């Protein structure tokens, strides 16, 4: 009998069954590895969902696309828009810098956009990574419901309810307005203007249109409270004292 050959055959045989206990230990070891493999993707997805929810309901980064608010806001600045500022009974006040949806006031016909492109741009805009929709604007509130806003007094200043307003935030060299106007702001509406008056298309430019140049309060997305980028521009966007002496509109009390 060739015992060496038999031994060689036995050596080549498969390993005996490791048993359920051994398989269980192997499964317990591999499971964390499998989880670890997909964890970065899961964490990234959760972070994006959290940021989108935060942007939708609390505070949204907003990329400044134009020079209409210089020097307060510059092209490329990212501002944080406080969406809770007017959520619980608060109302926009004179001097606030607000972001609003201009459809029905500044925009009469919505521009066409590829649905897929629009979805991607909207997601990017919600994170402050892309330009906002063409229908979104950022301006300063000059008049609220009931205010009479006129341009201009003998010194070229805008008047609100008969009180001249010294606008220290205007772009250097700009006049308060090159266009004369006299309007009583309807209740629930806002008269808004850019700080760089010679470069801003604002309420003045839409006086003859169906919306009358005024923005419904319900179309305000939020108040711009903070310049978050670039780092060299970190600062709060405070309400100026320019309107402190403006009296309440005629017929308003409180």
From TrEMBL:
<comment type="similarity">
    <text>Belongs to the peptidase S26 family.</text>
</comment>
<dbReference type="GO" id="GO:0005886">
    <property type="term" value="C:plasma membrane"/>
</dbReference>
<dbReference type="InterPro" id="IPR000223">
    <property type="entry name" value="Pept_S26A_signal_pept_1"/>
</dbReference>
<dbReference type="GO" id="GO:0004252">
    <property type="term" value="F:serine-type endopeptidase activity"/>
</dbReference>
<dbReference type="InterPro" id="IPR036286">
    <property type="entry name" value="LexA/Signal_pep-like_sf"/>
</dbReference>
<feature type="active site">
    <location>
        <position position="139"/>
    </location>
</feature>
<feature type="region of interest" description="Disordered">
    <location>
        <begin position="1"/>
        <end position="26"/>
    </location>
</feature>
<dbReference type="GO" id="GO:0006465">
    <property type="term" value="P:signal peptide processing"/>
</dbReference>
<dbReference type="InterPro" id="IPR019533">
    <property type="entry name" value="Peptidase_S26"/>
</dbReference>
<keyword id="KW-0812">Transmembrane</keyword>
<dbReference type="GO" id="GO:0009003">
    <property type="term" value="F:signal peptidase activity"/>
</dbReference>
<keyword id="KW-1133">Transmembrane helix</keyword>
<dbReference type="Pfam" id="PF10502">
    <property type="entry name" value="Peptidase_S26"/>
</dbReference>
<protein>
    <recommendedName>
        <fullName>Signal peptidase I</fullName>
        <ecNumber>3.4.21.89</ecNumber>
    </recommendedName>
</protein>
<keyword id="KW-0645">Protease</keyword>
<keyword id="KW-0378">Hydrolase</keyword>
<feature type="transmembrane region" description="Helical">
    <location>
        <begin position="43"/>
        <end position="64"/>
    </location>
</feature>
<keyword id="KW-0472">Membrane</keyword>
<dbReference type="InterPro" id="IPR019758">
    <property type="entry name" value="Pept_S26A_signal_pept_1_CS"/>
</dbReference>
<feature type="domain" description="Peptidase S26">
    <location>
        <begin position="43"/>
        <end position="229"/>
    </location>
</feature>
<feature type="active site">
    <location>
        <position position="68"/>
    </location>
</feature>
């Amino acid at each position: 009998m060739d015992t060496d050959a038999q031994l060689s055959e036995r050596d080549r045989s498969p390993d005996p069954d490791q048993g359920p206990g051994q398989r269980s230990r192997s499964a317990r070891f591999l499971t964390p590895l499998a989880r670890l493999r997909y964890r970065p993707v899961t964490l990234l997805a959760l972070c994006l969902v959290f940021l989108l929810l935060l942007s939708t309901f609390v505070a949204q980064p907003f990329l400044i696309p134009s020079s209409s608010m210089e020097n307060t806001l510059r092209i490329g600045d990212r501002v944080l828009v406080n969406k809770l500022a007017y959520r619980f009974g608060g109302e926009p006040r004179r001097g606030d810098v607000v972001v609003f949806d201009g459809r029905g006031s500044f925009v009469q016909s919505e521009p066409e956009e590829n649905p897929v492109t629009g979805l991607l741009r909207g997601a990017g805009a919600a994170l402050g990574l892309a330009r906002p929709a063409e229908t979104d604007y950022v301006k300063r509130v000059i008049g609220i419901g009931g205010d009479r806003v006129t341009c201009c007094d003998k010194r070229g200043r805008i008047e609100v309810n008969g009180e001249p307003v010294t606008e220290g935030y205007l772009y250097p060299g700009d006049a308060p307005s090159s266009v004369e106007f006299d309007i009583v702001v309807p209740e629930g509406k806002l008269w808004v203007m850019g700080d760089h008056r010679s470069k801003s298309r604002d309420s003045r430019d839409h006086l003859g249109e169906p919306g009358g140049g005024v923005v419904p309060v319900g179309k305000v997305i939020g108040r711009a409270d903070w310049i978050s980028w670039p780092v060299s521009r970190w600062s709060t966007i405070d309400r100026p004292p320019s309107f402190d002496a403006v009296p309440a509109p005629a017929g308003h009390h409180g």
